Amino acid sequence: MPAHRLLAVALISTAVGAATALPATASALQPATASALQPAGRTALAWPPMCIDVSNNRGNGTLMYQWQCDSNNTNQKFVIDNGLIKVEDTIGRNQTMCLDSSNNRTNGTRVYQWQCLGNPNQLWVVRRGAIILRSTLNSGNPLCLDVTNDRGNGTQVYLWQCDSNNTNQKFVINNGQFAIKDTLS
Q1: 3-state DSSP helix/strand/coil percent for the chain, to nearest 5?
Q2: pLDDT tens figures, 32-71
Q3: How does pLDDT run across 147-185, given as a tens digit for each residue?
């Protein structure tokens, strides 16, 4: 096929694709549509609601990160039980998984899931929207769960010195999900 004919076919395909409507679920995620759904007097957020997520892997050492909230995503469902933050779909299985901070007590320590043992790396306190590593509460430098300044899928979750004014450390816990507060409308 001559090059000019290939170019014409490509242009027609692009034009047809641009005019094709997105399915309702996909179009609901588009920024223009989302801003049209904002209540009067509120502005659209720059990102969708984000939640803490454990990925599909239920093995020791799997890192925690943030991902767009989905109420049907079992990777985003947790149960707080006597200070342990358990991955809900592992409860009652051979190996219940918990949010774990490792033995490090410094800014930037990655947070992951580990088999629930009830050790100091796995005991948390929820206070005014902050999720605090219990063993650091009386240390003079308490450490909180922190989501960094980025709000993209796959962005790391780690420990950082608690700061009540830091929006990276504010969560809303609802129906087992830990949503990042500043991503909620």
Answers
A1: 25, 30, 45
A2: 323 333 333 334 456 699 999 999 999 999 999 999 999 9
A3: 998 899 999 999 999 999 999 999 999 999 999 999 997
Instruction: Please say whether the beta carbons of 94 and 86 come within 8 A.
Output: no
Helix locations, the chain, DSSP H = 3-19, 24-27, 31-36
pTM of the complete model: 0.74
Establish how many alpha carbons lie within 13 A of residue 62's alpha carbon, considering only the half-sphere containing its beta carbon: 16
Nearest to 66 by CA among 158, 135, 4: 158
List, in sequence order, every beta strand (DSSP E) within the chain. Answer: 50-53, 62-63, 65-68, 78-81, 84-87, 97-100, 112-115, 124-127, 130-133, 143-146, 155-156, 158-161, 171-174, 177-180
Q: What are phi and psi of 172, to 5 degrees?
A: -120, 120
H or E segment and range at residue 174: strand 171-174
Q: Check residue 46 and give its pLDDT.
A: 60
Cα distance between residue 119 and residue 59, in whole Å: 18
Architecture of the domain delimited by 50-183: Trefoil (2.80)
Structural element, H or E, at residue 132: strand 130-133
Main-chain phi, psi angles of 136, to 5 degrees: -105, 0
pLDDT digits (tens, 9 = 90+) for 101-149: 999 999 999 999 999 999 999 999 999 999 999 999 999 999 999 999 8
